[in-house]
Amino acid sequence: MNGNIIFIGGGFALGLTGGLAGAAEGSLEGLTNAELNELIGDSQRALLRELFGQGEEGALSQLQNLQAPEGLTSQTLEIYQEIAQRVVQAGPNAPGYAVQSLRLQIVQQLLQGMK
């Protein structure tokens, strides 16, 4: 997938080619998790892995010493926030709920600090 994400006033304007062309402009809600993951890209995904560490332990550690890796963008955090929110909204019995809840806290704190 080749596309651009343009951040406009707190929302997204998606300039995309391929399978994501039908996504609603300014919203990530209409995209599948696979499509959201495609938007993140390899280099930003590596920075997210660095940010979150491994599992619950990594996320808890990061919450105590919150610092974003250099180069991690607010756009990537917004996309990941949507992914994590979907898991959390599915409830505590959803696979990955505990880890995604912690990661969501990390993302929200970092986004708040970027404003």
Structure description:
The protein is mainly alpha-helical and 115 residues long. It has one domain. Helices cover 55% and strands 10% of the residues. A hairpin with a 2-residue loop joins β1 and β2 (11-16). The termini are far apart. Residues 1-25 have low confidence and may be disordered.
Helix count equals: 5
Termini Cα gap: 29 Å
Biggest β-sheet, characterized?
2 strands, antiparallel
Helix content: 40-55%
Radius of gyration, in Å, reads: 14 Å
Task: Fill in the keyword field for this structure.
disordered N terminus, 2 strands, 10% strand, 115 residues, mainly alpha
Topology:
Blueprint: E1 3-8, E2 11-16, H1 33-40, H2 42-52, H3 55-64, H4 74-89, H5 97-114
Antiparallel strand pairs: 1-2
Outline:
This protein is mainly alpha-helical and 115 residues long. The protein contains five helices and two strands; from the N terminus they run E-E-H-H-H-H-H.
